[in-house]
């Protein structure tokens, strides 16, 4: 009798463990689309989990334990904020020179699809610093440089601690160029023949504001694909896509996805979720749990 009680206790504990494991896996399945990275909301068209959001923005964001990053061919840029109403994302390059720090030579490059659907906004400018007299933007492509709210190269070199070095080394004011994204998109810093660059956003509000108070970084303008996401969200679903075909999906549950909305989806109970789950390991655990319970009942007889 003592042996039977010991076996029964062992199987009871095993059953409880297996059920708890199943419950934890269930929560992981249902939480496939995270909607926050630290304090930054992650909404359509963006995502930090594959299969969520719009396929055009796939693999563009990465969430670490402390920061959200925008991934490009030239590096990872820290996301400072996302404004879904204005459809803008503000990013900062930790390796970029600013008014207070001089960083090594660096290029900014985006992929073709990024340049098409989330390019730098018109009020983001790139400042090419310490350009040689032979620089293309001072000769053949001189028209690519423009006036920036009345600011000048003299002001930049005179106000910024980091850029004063170029003034001191040349004993003059080296050329600089205020330009748009199209210039750095097609020409590297080597071709431009400028040693450094920095970028500033919200430039339409910087008239009369000195370089020390400029907003350094980039503001990107994104477009939202019209795929009926609003309809999906209102029906209780999450906008996403099939990871193999990249066809748009409305993610309703682990067992019921729809093309547009979840109105036709049915209520799914705990056991039903596991019978239809695509995770073989969970199905095995479910069977083992049932077997343990049955064996425990037999031992009690």
From TrEMBL:
Source species of the chain: Anisodus tanguticus
Top-rank taxon, per record: Eukaryota
Keyword set includes Signal: yes
Keyword Phosphoprotein part of the UniProt annotation: no
Signal peptide range: 1-31
Membrane spanning residue stretches: 279-299
Name of the featured protein: Wall-associated receptor kinase galacturonan-binding domain-containing protein
Wall-associated receptor kinase galacturonan-binding domain: residues covered: 33-93
GO cellular component, one term: membrane
Subcellular locations according to the entry: Membrane
Membrane topology: Single-pass membrane protein
An annotated Gene Ontology molecular function: polysaccharide binding
């Amino acid at each position: 009798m003592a042996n039977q009680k010991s076996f029964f206790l062992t199987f009871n504990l095993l059953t409880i463990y297996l059920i708890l494991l199943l419950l934890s896996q269930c929560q992981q399945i249902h939480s496939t689309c995270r909607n926050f990275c630290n304090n930054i909301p992650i909404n359509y068209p963006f995502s930090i989990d594959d299969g969520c959001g719009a396929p055009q923005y796939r693999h563009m964001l990465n969430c670490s334990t402390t920061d959200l990053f925008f991934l490009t061919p030239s590096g990872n840029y820290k996301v400072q904020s996302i404004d879904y109403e204005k459809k803008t994302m503000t990013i900062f390059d930790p390796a970029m020179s600013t008014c207070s720090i001089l960083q090594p030579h660096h290029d900014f490059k985006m992929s073709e699809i990024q340049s098409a659907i989330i390019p730098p906004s018109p009020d983001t400018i790139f400042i090419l610093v310490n350009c040689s007299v032979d620089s293309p933007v001072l000769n053949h492509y001189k028209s690519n440089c423009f006036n920036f709210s009345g600011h000048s190269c003299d002001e930049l070199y005179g106000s910024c601690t980091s850029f004063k070095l170029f003034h001191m080394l040349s004993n003059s004011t080296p050329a600089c160029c205020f330009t748009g994204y199209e210039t750095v998109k097609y020409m590297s810093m080597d071709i431009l023949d400028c040693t450094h660059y920095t970028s500033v956003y919200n430039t339409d509000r910087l008239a009369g504001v000195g370089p020390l108070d400029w907003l350094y970084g980039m503001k990107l303008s994104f477009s939202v694909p019209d795929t009926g996401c609003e309809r999906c969200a209102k029906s209780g679903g999450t906008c996403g896509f099939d990871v193999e075909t990249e066809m748009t999906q409305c993610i309703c549950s682990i067992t019921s996805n729809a093309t547009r909305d979840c109105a036709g989806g049915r209520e799914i109970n705990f056991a039903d979720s596991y019978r239809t789950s695509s995770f073989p390991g969970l199905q095995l655990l479910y069977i083992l749990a049932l077997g343990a319970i049955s064996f425990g009942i037999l031992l009690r007889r």
